[in-house]
Amino acid sequence: MTAEKYVEDRIREANVGMLLLRPRNAGLLRQARQAFRERLSYAMMAFEPAPDEIATETAEELPNGEKLTLGRRDYGERIPAVYLKASTPNAAARPTLVVHPEGGAWALSSSESRDGLVAKLLDNGATFWRLTPSNSRTLQRRGRT
Hints:
Layout: H1 3-21, H2 26-44, E1 54-62, E2 65-72, E3 77-84, E4 96-99, H3 103-112, H4 117-123, E5 128-131, E6 140-141
Parallel strand pairs: 4-5
Antiparallel strand pairs: 1-2, 2-3, 3-5, 3-6
């Protein structure tokens, strides 16, 4: 078997697996979530840390939240984040996480704009988190905030 044939076969197997996991009901959706969570964890080498392994550092207090960095204890990488909370929290409103390439500036601008997505979420009582993607230039190392 050639290397090209081997790769073609693996791609075909992956595509069939994806079709089988396409959610058509609640049970298949649960299966798909579990399968993709495991696959993405290994593909990205990202594993859910235990609560005591999480490190947070406040960079700046905001009137309705904070700018901070998130990471794991004993690992150098820190991900910049913005946390904003509604002035009147709504327990029925689910927290919203956005990964946006424009970073915290977008989140803060959107929270201050009448038609902004973040402003609308906060008006509905939701908690808002914005993370900067790890492949952006703003990924920070310990000691640089």
